[in-house]
């Protein structure tokens, strides 16, 4: 065979797999079957720089006691500041509560893709800056990208927004997120269960957030109706 004809023959001998190993990887292995192993429940938790980082920490502490839930944690730089300011906690201590932690600048991490399966995401607490980014599809870091992915995949996104009072931009951004299917959950304490400590108030709120994900817990006392003597006085 002449060199010229061999050169012509070579491309015919090349399979798509030998040209690109990704093609081979994508081909189903007939012996492997198609059933994936069951996934644990996965929740992404982000702590941003609004006051109330205790909500995020409490969520992580709760999930740590639940081996069936895998927690994936993100903390913004301002969130780290508030962990110091409000709880005297360092980033590493909080990260130790989570199953997996990410750098907010790592926009190539697994949770930046819709192919990463999760039950959704909770931003606890959520600053007005992060709210604004999510409301406008501005995926400028891994927190806002992960939230964007959760929304596009129609999974549950809860933003525990915290500011007071609100300006019109805040209110409009909350409306936008709600229109996209996200849940705006300002951590506003209730008093009807007569909390005896800040921890009880936090647990009550965290429990109501967990309710949104169908996670069973005993953090929130359940309302059983008014006491009879309260009704008598009306
Ligand atoms: C002590 C402290 C408390 C803050 N509290 C709030 C707050 O309650 N709500 C808010 O939207 N921003 C608050 N901020 C400002 C945010 O941290 C700031 O806008 C930051 O850029 C948010 O960035 P992030 O969303 O990436 O965490 C606070 C900042 C500090 C230092």
Describe this structure in words.
This protein has 234 residues and is α/β, with parallel strands linked by helices. The chain has one domain: Flavin prenyltransferase-like (Rossmann fold, 3-Layer(aba) Sandwich), CATH 3.40.50. 43% of the residues lie in helices and 14% in strands. It contains eleven helices and six strands. A six-stranded parallel sheet has the order 3-2-1-4-5-6. α4 (53-64) packs across α10 (198-212) and α7 packs across α9. The termini are far apart. The structure holds flavin mononucleotide (FMN). Flavin mononucleotide is lined by residues 48-51, 76, 78-79, 81-82, 85, 127-130, 162-163. InterPro entries: Flavin_trans-like, Flavoprotein, UbiX-like. This is Flavin prenyltransferase UbiX.
Q: What percent of residues adopt helix (DSSP H or I)?
A: 40-55%
Give the helices and strands as they follow along the chain. Answer: HHHEHEHHEEHHEHEHH
Uncertain ranges: 1-13
Structural class per helix/strand content? alpha/beta
CATH-assigned fold name? Rossmann fold
- Ligand inventory: flavin mononucleotide
List the strand order in the largest sheet: 3-2-1-4-5-6
What is the annotated CATH architecture? Answer: 3-Layer(aba) Sandwich
Topology, please?
Blueprint: H1 3-13, H2 16-19, H3 21-26, E1 41-47, H4 53-64, E2 69-75, H5 77-87, H6 91-95, E3 100-102, E4 120-126, H7 128-135, H8 142-152, E5 156-161, H9 168-179, E6 183-184, H10 198-212, H11 228-232
Parallel strand pairs: 1-2, 1-4, 2-3, 4-5, 5-6
Helix pairs in contact: 4-10, 7-9
């Amino acid at each position: 065979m002449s060199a010229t004809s061999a050169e012509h023959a070579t491309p015919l001998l090349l399979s798509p797999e030998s040209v690109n190993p990704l093609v081979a990887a994508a081909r189903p292995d007939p012996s492997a079957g198609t059933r994936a192993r069951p996934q644990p429940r996965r929740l992404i938790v982000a702590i941003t720089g609004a006051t109330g980082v205790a909500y995020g920490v409490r969520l992580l502490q709760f999930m740590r006691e639940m081996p069936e839930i895998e927690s994936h944690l993100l903390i913004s730089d301002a969130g780290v500041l508030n962990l110091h300011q409000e709880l005297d906690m360092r980033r590493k201590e909080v990260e130790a509560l989570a199953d997996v932690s990410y750098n907010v600048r790592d926009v190539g991490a697994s949770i930046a893709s819709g192919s990463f399966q999760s039950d959704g995401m909770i931003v606890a607490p959520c600053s007005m800056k992060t709210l604004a980014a999510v409301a406008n599809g501005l995926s400028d870091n891994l927190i806002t990208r992960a939230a964007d992915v959760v929304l596009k995949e129609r999974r549950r996104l809860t933003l525990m927004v915290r500011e007071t009072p609100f300006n019109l931009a805040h209110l409009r951004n909350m409306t936008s997120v709600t229109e996209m299917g996200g849940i705006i959950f300002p951590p506003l304490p209730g008093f009807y269960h007569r909390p005896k400590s800040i921890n009880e108030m936090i647990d009550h709120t965290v429990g109501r957030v967990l309710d949104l994900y169908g996670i069973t817990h005993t953090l929130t006392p359940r309302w059983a109706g008014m006491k009879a003597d309260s009704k008598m006085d009306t």
